[in-house]
Amino acid sequence: MHTATPTVPSRLFVPQGNGSPQGGADLADVLRSRRQRLAQLIDFPVLLWSGTPKSRNFAANIYPYRASSHFLYFAGLPLENAAIRLEGDQLTLFIDDTSPEEALWHGPTPSREEIAQKMGATEAYPLNALADKALGTATLGESDETVQMLEKALLKRGIVIPRHHPGGNQALEKAIVQLRMIQDEGSLTAIRQAIAVTVEAHKMGMRTTPQAQTEAQIRAAMEAVIIGQNMTCAYGSIVTVAGEVLHNHHYHNSVGAGDLLLADVGAETSDGWASDITRTWPVSGKFSATQRDLYDIVLAAHDFCIEKAQRGVEYQHIHLIACQIIAAGLVELGILKGNPEDLVAQDAHALFFPHGVGHLMGLDVHDVEDLGDLSGYAEGRERSDRFGLAFLRLNRPLEVGMVVTIEPGFYQVPAILNDAKNRDRYTSMVDWERLEQFSDVRGIRIEDDILITDLGCEVLSKDLPTTAAEIEDLVGNSADDYQ
User: For the whole prediction, is pTM greater than 0.70?
Assistant: First the structure.
C-alpha cells in the first residue's frame, strides 16, 4: 500500500426494505443496464467515489452521511469510503472490509464479496488496489478533501481538477447528464416511493396544524412520517409562516389564526431518490378572501403549466406561461396595472414571482446541479440576466422520462418590494396601496412532481390535493376535531 495513502474507517450499509431502487427487478440488472447505456456514450474507463463521513466536532461524532449521487446511480448502494471503476458493462468495486474494532461500534456488516454480488460487480478489491487497477481512469473531480487525498495518492495525480471545470472531463459530465436526465423504471419506482411518503407527511402536517403552537411542531410531525418509513429528508425542510423567505430553515415562529403555513418538504429513499412537494395552507383552516384570491392565481398557473407540460415543449415556455397567468391574475386584482404580456416582458411579475417554475428531480432534488447548468441548460444556452429569468434552473425541451417539478408562487419579499430601484422602475405598474390590502399573504407556493410521458405528463404527487376547498377540508376537519 502506498505510504501516503490516508486511511479512513468504513461503515458499510446495504439498505433493506423501503427505498429499493430496482422495484420488482434485480438491482444488479438495473445497474448493468445503466453501465451499458453509459458505454454507448463514452469509450474510456471511469472512476466514481462514494465519499466519506464528516466529523462534527470529534472523529466518532459524524454528520449524517450521504453518498455521492453519481456513485449511487451506478453502484446502487450508499456505501462509505468506496469507489467503482466502470468500463463497458463491467463494474469493479474497491472497498475495505470492516475491522473487528469497527464491528464493535457499528455491528456486523456485509463482506466486500457480498456487496459486490449485490451490485453485480465483476471484481472486488480493497481500496489500495486502486494504485494498480485504476490508473488512467476519468474522474469527475471531488470536493471531498479525503477523497482528493486518496485520488492524488492512489492514482498518482498532482492535482484534482474541480467538478464542472473547463479543464475537467466534459465528455464524462455530458454523458452522465444525458443518462440521469431520463429516469429508468428502477429510478421511477424509488421516486414514487419517496413521493408516497411525502404525501402522507404533508397530510400529517395539515392535520397537526390546528393544535400546533410553533412551526417546529408542524415540521416535527411531518418529518416523523418520513423517518417512520426509514427515509430521510431530501433537503432541509421549509415549514414556515414566513413564506416569502424562499429557503427558510428556521422553525421558531409561532403559528396562529390569520397565518398561511408554507411547507416545502420531501422524503428521500434510503438509496438517495428524492421527492419535492410544497403546499400552502391556512393555519385557521380557512383562507381569508385575500389569501384565497392569491392562492387561486398561483393554482391556476400551476394547473395550466402541468396541462402544457409534454414532450418537445420548451421548459422556459412553461415558466413564461406561469409568469403570464400570475401577471394576468394580479392585474385582475388591481395589484398590477397594464397589459399582462407587456408586464412580463418588463419583468414586473418577478416582483412577486422571482424564481423559476421548477427543476429536474431524481437522485438530487435539483438533479445533477453539481455540474452547474450543464444539466439544466441545453447545449449552447446560457442563463439570462433578466430579473424574471435569472433564476430559471431548467431551459431545455422536455423529453419522455424526465421528472420535473412545477412550482409557481407569489411572495411579498420586503427586500424586493422596498428596493428603491424597483419602486422607481415599476412605479406606474404597481398599485402599492392596493397591494397593502393583501398584507396577510407573505408567501404561497404550490409544487408537484411530474413525469413526462408519451401522452403528456403524469402528476406523480396527485394524491395530495391542491384546491383551496380541499386544503381547507384537510386542515379544517382537523381543527374541528380539537374544538
Answer: yes
Please report, to the nearest 10 degrees, the dihedral formed by the alpha carbons of residues 123, 124, 127, 132 taken in order. Answer: -30
Across-strand partners of 280? 262
Please tell me the predicted confidence (pLDDT) of residue 153. 86
The answer to whether 250 and 274 are in contact (CB under 8 A) is no
Do 120 and 254 belong together in one domain?
A: no
Shared-domain flag, residues 225 and 163: no
**What is the residue-wise DSSP string for 224-271?**
HHHHHTT-EESS--EEES-TTSTT------B--TT-EEEEEE-EE-TT
Task: Let me know if residue 12 belongs to a domain.
Answer: no
371 and 289 housed in the same domain: yes
201 closest CA partner among 474, 477, 443: 474
The domain that holds 243 is classified in CATH as: 3.90.230.10
Residue 172 sits in the same domain as residue 300: no
Cβ pair 313, 397 in contact under 8 A:
yes
- What is the arithmetic mean of pLDDT over 112-124? 96
Number of neighbouring beta carbons within 10 Å of residue 159: 10
- The residues with which 260 forms a beta bridge, in sequence order, are 282
Residue 466, H or E segment = none
Whole domain around residue 347: which residue ranges? 185-481
Q: Distance between the two ends of the chain, CA-based, in angstroms?
A: 69
